[in-house]
Amino acid sequence: VQLQASGGGLVQAGGSLRLSCAVSGSIFRFNTMGWYRQAPGKQRELVAHITWSGTTDYADSVKGRFTISRDNTKNTIYLQMNSLKPEDTAVYYCNKFPPGTWSAYWGQGTQVTVSS
User: Fold this and answer.
1) Strand runs (DSSP E) across the chain, as ranges?
2) What is the pLDDT of residues 5-32, one digit of tens each?
């Protein structure tokens, strides 16, 4: 099982980052995929999701700032994050949406830290 998120880092408020997640074909193919995040002391939350055909939806907190996309030939999803805020600081993960039977598999995630 592969859910390998990458691209995180330290950025100033207002900056941008682009996350990538390489996913096993068994999870990726024909499924809706999502980006999730977990801040210290908080529960994991859904940030955005994208269907196999490319329909997207976003949490209200990131609408207009984040863009989710996918490349179905590479089993990879992306998250373009613009106008980052300190409250976006979290570990970001990808998984199927909803995770269902894959809920036990999250990978290591990628840390995003936004300084004020």
Assistant:
1) 3-6, 9-12, 17-23, 33-38, 45-50, 56-58, 66-71, 76-81, 90-96, 110-115
2) 999 999 999 999 999 999 998 899 999 9
